[in-house]
Amino acid sequence: YVNNATHFPMGLVSKYQSNWTLLYPTTTTFVRPTTDAYIRFKITSTQQDFVTYNVAKQTTNVIYLSDRLVILSNVAFSPGQNYYISIDPGVFLPIATCLRDSMEITDKTFWPYNTASEPNTTVTTSTTSQSSTTTLVNRTVN
Among the four residues 17, 22, 109, 140, which has the most C-beta atoms within 10 Å? Predict the structure, then answer.
């Protein structure tokens, strides 16, 4: 059902990327499920969740429109990491059916992205001190 879906962004993104869009295939519309199902932003190397959104409850982060699903993330992704978006069963509930669950999408090549590495920065602090010498000369006053 989402084989022909267009999703973006993919590839290199800002660590502050917050708008993710999946366009539904033509003539397909999905509705928000009433049971818990998650969209997961996963770290590719460990398969661990970096952030998850419950599509049934986090309605400001996951927006179902007539032709697309919009995910608004609210995190800063770690620089120099590879990630992918995984979709639990039940996230996509076709409006024209009575199905309870949809298939999951756990293939890490379906929606991959990565963040640019940041250069290492070194902060060097130096302190300069000045010293001065005052010489007092005694004068004899007659």
Answer: 22
